[in-house]
Fold this sequence. Notes:
Elements: H1 2-7, H2 12-23, H3 26-31, E1 34-39, E2 42-48, H4 62-78, E3 85-96, E4 104-113, E5 118-129, E6 132-147
Antiparallel strand pairs: 1-2, 2-4, 3-6, 4-5, 5-6
Amino acid sequence: xxxxxxxxxxxxxxxxxxxxxxxxxxxxxxxxxxxxxxxxxxxxxxxxxxxxxxxxxxxxxxxxxxxxxxxxxxxxxxxxxxxxxxxxxxxxxxxxxxxxxxxxxxxxxxxxxxxxxxxxxxxxxxxxxxxxxxxxxxxxxxxxxxxxxxxx
Length: 152
């Protein structure tokens, strides 16, 4: 799977646009999240375990899990949007399937249906321990391409 992800890289201009936008996100910086893959219609984000992103039982907090899922889906859609536009979430739903515990969680956003105005993405979050991944959250999201308001 890793080899396919390496082949499935967005072009350098799109990667730079996504990374620059991500770097301006205060919440992602505050959480300690980082982009790990930018491909056409697909983005992955990793969040390392640390006390600040957990809830009272030591699991990753649902808010942190949801935030990286929403962001991964948003940037997956944004990889397909024209330059000079921006992306906003219209709605999303996430199901928490299991307690998220491990060394990190990884969110994957994948475009299911691109559109001129609205784009729909699948959201998946995996807990990773000893290089084993376990699906802990799944959802769906709708995003809007905002024209005339460049992401800056």
